[in-house]
Amino acid sequence: MEYGTARSVHISELAWPEYDARVRDGKTPVLIPVGALEQHGPHMSMNPDVLLPTAISERVADRIRALVAPPIAYGYKSQQKSGGGNHMPGTTSLDGLTVTSTIRDVLKELARHGVRRTVLVNGHYENSAFIVEGVDLAQRELRWDGIRDFSTVVLSYWDFVTQEAIDDIYQGEFPGWAVEHGGVLETSLMLHLHPHLVDMEKVCDHAPAQFPPYDFFPIKPEWTPASGCLSSAKRASAQHGETLLKVCVDGISRELARAFD
Ligand SMILES: [Zn+2]
Predict the structure, then answer these.
(1) Ligand 1 centre distance from Cα of residue 40 (Å)
(2) Is residue 49 among the annotated active site residues?
(3) Which cofactors does the annotated protein need, by name (predicted)?
(4) For 72, how many CA atoms within 13 A lie in the half-sphere containing its CB?
(5) What is the rounded distance in angstroms from the CA atom of residue 260 to the CA atom of residue 29?
(6) Is the pLDDT confidence value at 217 over 80?
(7) Active site residue 180
(8) What is the 3-state secondary structure (H, E, C) of the chain?
(9) What is the pLDDT of residue 4?
């Protein structure tokens, strides 16, 4: 992808007439990666929740002739049982209302440009309900403006990892997506896509975090492993990352073609 050319999938890299020409008829889907600034253990940068859905969106857009909006780089507060908790240094979060309002505003702006097919590609578990609320508010307000054909797919990329890939990578020791924070999935994808942002020598090899079947507030920091990760990334590799990227891009491309059919 070359900066500033008409072939770019990034709407921010297009001049407005080119963008206008590509979205005006409403047929071109626009993918919006939604991430977070959140610690991911001592071995990795704090931006995988932004970089991973962005990388996946770029490849999907290339395949289905879609565009990618700039990612939303902050997300809802890290929860202890899925992201280590919002008490960790570096983790920088938005209130739910802010996430919801941001999603609503961006969708309504895209609609004003003529876009009618949108996809929110989530990279941070905690965002999920606030994304859905933003979509609902946007669609409600667009209906008030007489726009009834604006559609949105909401997805989290890890839901497209196939059982076959899970069996291959985890060898029967898959801990579940909730405790994959800073674990094999994200670390492998980062090793494949952005290896300079990972230091495998700093991986803390510990058993998956165990939590009671409830949340407790204010949180008990001692519930979170000292590393900030909820499972070990020891098994991570660039090769697994390549596999994970492929199944996500394949699955999302296939399902979007079906959804917008
Ligand atoms: Zn993450």
Answers:
(1) 6
(2) yes
(3) Zn(2+)
(4) 29
(5) 8
(6) yes
(7) no
(8) CCCCCCCCCEHHHCCHHHHHHHHCCCCCCEEEEECCECCCCCCECCCHHHHHHHHHHHHHHHHHCCEECCCECCCECCCHHHHCCCCCCCCECECHHHHHHHHHHHHHHHHHHCCCEEEEEECCHHHHHHHHHHHHHHHHHHHHCCCCCCEEEEEEHHHHCCHHHHHHHHCCCCCCHHHCCCCHHHHHHHHHHCHHHECHHHCCCCCCCCCCCCCCCCCCHHHCCCCCCCCCCCCCCHHHHHHHHHHHHHHHHHHHHHHCC
(9) 45
**Per annotation, catalytic residue among 13, 49, 58, 180:** 49
The reply to whether 192 belongs to the active site is: no
C-alpha 50, offset from chain centre: 6
Which is nearest to 139 in space by CA: 158, 116, 123, 121? 116
* pTM over 0.85, yes/no: yes
CA atoms 258, 256, 154, 172: torsion sign: positive
Q: Which of 40, 43, 192, 240 is catalytic?
A: 40
Q: Classify residue 7 by burial, with Cβ atoms within 10 Å: 0-12, 13-18, 19+.
A: exposed
Cβ–Cβ < 8 Å for 186, 38: no
φ and ψ at 17, to 5 degrees?
-65, -35
Closest CA to 52 of 41, 64, 44, 42: 44
| Residue 112: Cβ within 10 Å count | 11
In 3D space, the residue among 250, 246, 230, 227 whose CA is nearest the CA of residue 238 turns out to be: 246
Query: In this structure, what token pair is assigned to residue 7?
Result: 């072939």
Mean pLDDT rounded to a whole number for the chain: 96
